[in-house]
Amino acid sequence: QVQLVESGGGLVQAGGSLRLSCAASGIRTFRDSTMAWYRQAPGKQRELVAHITGGGSTYYAGSVMLRFTISTDNAKKMVYLQMNSLKPEDTAVYYCDFYPPRPIWGQGTQVTVSS
Q1: DSSP 31
Q2: Which of 97, 114, 82 is CA-nearest to residue 40?
């Protein structure tokens, strides 16, 4: 059974930083998988934030490029999202999943950026 558990969210002032973590279990081919972070703001559809292939190639949505960094630790089966220069519009619940999403959708982690 595949499980993805997100953590690391919180309340931060604009300009601040957070590091999100996603613990994956039940995935035998994690190192070969493309993993991603998504987010859903209140009243909006869930959107792709970034993804990373098993080979380390990355993609970022335009709104987060140069501010966010996605990475993985294959040994620990972890997916990370380093978020810098946070803006109020980054406020959302953040989820990790495969890309494209299977979808699995864990409980997510809330990120709130105050102005």
Answers
A1: G
A2: 97
Provide mean pLDDT across the span 2-7: 96
Q: Is 90 helix (H, G, I), strand (E, B) or coil?
A: helix
Average pLDDT, the chain: 96
Cis peptide, bond prior to residue 42, ω within 30 of zero: no
Q: Which two tokens stand for residue 81?
A: 């999202």
Return the ∠ at Cα 79 (arms to 29 and 67), rounded to 5°.
140
> What digits encode the pLDDT tens for the residues 35-86?
999 999 999 999 999 999 999 999 999 999 999 999 999 999 999 999 999 9
Report how far residue 92's alpha carbon sits from residue 81's, in angstroms, rounded to the nearest whole number: 14
Question: Starting at the edge strand that comes first in sequence, how are the strands of the sheet with 47-52 ordered?
Answer: 10-13, 109-114, 92-98, 35-40, 47-52, 58-60
